[in-house]
Amino acid sequence: MKQPGLTPRQTATLTSWRGLGTQATQFIPPWVKVAVALALGLGTMVGWKRTVVTVGERIGKEHLTYAQGASAELVAMVLIQAADMYHLPVSTTHVLTSGVAGTMAANGSGLQKSTVCSLLMAWVLTLPASILLAGALFMVFRHIF
User: Fold this and answer.
1) Do residues 101 and 111 make contact, with C-beta atoms less than 8 angstroms apart?
2) How many CB atoms lie within 10 A of CB 51?
3) Contact by Cβ (8 Å): 26, 84
4) Residue 77 burial (CB < 10 Å; 0-12/13-18/19+)?
5) Tens-digit pLDDT profile for residues 83-103
6) Distance, CA of 73 to CA of 68 (rounded, Å)
């Protein structure tokens, strides 16, 4: 592939701007990290059993085996790391439950259609609901502050 005819100075300037753009767009304030960690921690403390039962027992027609769990976690780890390397947003829950569903399908034990449909609907509705909620909260906070 032919490289654009840039001088070394132009290349250095573009590289600098790219770095500044990355810093600006990937900055997360510390209070946001703490708030998210608290919300996730409290949510897990309250609802852990429902999540564990759904992932381990309700996606497939049989209980999740140790090998299936390890395979699903390994795939989730690799996909989440790849998404992080390429700066792509992913949902860890979506990745893991998809991995579990994949192991159930590969094992031949089958999938529970009602649970898989519920998961798919949740995935489809999460993004628009988040957009609407964030937009509404922004409007409210803008008027308050």
Assistant:
1) yes
2) 14
3) no
4) middle
5) 999 988 888 888 999 999 999
6) 9
